[in-house]
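Exercise: predict the structure of this protein bound to cytidine-5'-triphosphate.
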Amino acid sequence: MEELKGKHIVLGITGGIAAYKSVILLRLLIKSGAEVQVVMTPNSKEFVAPVTFASLSQKPVVSEFFTANTGEWHSHVDLGIWADLMVIAPATASTISKMAHGMADNMLVTTYLSAKEPVMIAPAMDLDMWNHPTTQRNIRILGEDGVMIISPGSGSLASGLQGKGRMAEPEEIFLQIEKFFSKTEELKGTKVMVTAGPTYENIDPVRFIGNYSSGKMGYAIAEELAERGAEVTLISGPVNLPAPASPLIRKISVTSAREMFDESQKAFNTADIAIFAAAVADYAPEVQFDKKIKREKEEELLIRLKRNPDIAAQLGKNKEGRLTVGFALETEKGIDNALKKLQTKNLDLIVLNSLEDPEAGFMKDTNKITIISKDGENLKYGAKSKREVAIDIIDAILRYRKYH
Ligand code: CTP
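Solution:
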C-alpha cells in the first residue's frame, strides 16, 4: 500500500520515552511511500540514536543549525517549503510550551515557526504534566493556531503512574496522517468564493451603518474548505479576526456592500461554489458626506437610504452550474422565510439560523442551524461550535453536489 506516495513529511522527535514508538511510525510512513525528513531536538538523542532514524528514512537527521565540522547550514526555511506536513511525535510539555510561545532555541521549534505546511502533534508526558493548567493552556493556544492535536491515550506511563499522557500508538498517528492527506484531496481544484462579516455603509468620514456580524462563521467555512484542498476567495467585510493562515485562502478586504458586490462578481466568474455568509447591509445612505456632519439646531436628522445590490440574488441570476449557498437569519417562521429566500436568490442550499435560539447567531461561538435544500429537504443540527457547523455545511454541500 502506498497511500502516501511522494508526500513530504517532516517528522519531529523530542525528548521523551515515547521516541522509540516514533521509529515504528517512521517505518510505516516510509513503507507507505512518503519521503521523511527527521528533525530531532538535542534531548531526544538521549532516547533514540539518530542513526536509527537516519537509516530508516535514508536521510541524515537534522538536529543542529550547523554541521559542526563542515559549517554547513541546515535551512529550516527550505524544510518549510519542502514539506506537505509536519508531525511532531512525541511532543513533550517543553516543546509544546516553546511552540505556543515562539521560543525558537532549537532546530525543531525553528522549523515549526517557519512551517508553511500544516502541523500535527502527538503529545506525550506524565499525567500531572498533561493535566497542568499551563500545558492545557498551551495546547489550547496551539489548537487556535491551527495545529492538529492527536490526543494522548490513557494507560501505564513511564513514571509508573497510570493515567492520560501516553503518546497515541504509532498506528493511530499513521491513520491520522493518512486521513489528513485524503481530506486535502476532497476538494482539490475546486474554486469556492465565500463572503463573510458585516458591511459598513458610510454616512460621513467618521460614521457608518453596520451590524453585529463577527465574520466567524464565514471564516470557519473558508478554513474548513482550505483544509479539504479547495482554493478559496474570502471576501470579507470589516472584522476583528486574524487573516486565515492557509495559502489556499486569498482574502479580499472590503468595506461596503457595493465593494463586496464588485469583488464577488469577479470571484464568481471563476468559482464552482459560492457561499454567501456575509451579513450585507440591505441599505446604504443615499448621500455620503465627505465632511463630518455637524450638530444642527434641528431636533431631527434625516438620513435617506437607498437599496444595496443583493449579491446572492444578482449572482444567482446567471449561475450556470455553479452551486450557491445562502444564509437566513430569522426571528420567526424560520423555515418558510428561508425557503422564500432560497427561491428568490436561486440558491441550492440555505442555512437557517434561528435567532429564537440563545445558542445561535451573531457574536456567539456556537451556532444551531437547519440546512434546507432546493428539493425541500431539511436537516436540523444541534448546537455546535462554528468550526463544527462549518464541517456540517461543507458535508451537506458535498452530499448535495453528489446527487445533482
Ligand atoms: N445577501 C447578499 N446581499 C445582500 C443581502 C443579503 O448577498 N445585499 C445574502 C446574505 O449573505 C445571506 C442571504 O443573502 O446569504 C440573506 O438574505 P437576506 O435577504 O439579506 O436576509 P435578511 O437580510 O435577513 O432579509 P430580511 O431582512 O428581509 O429578512
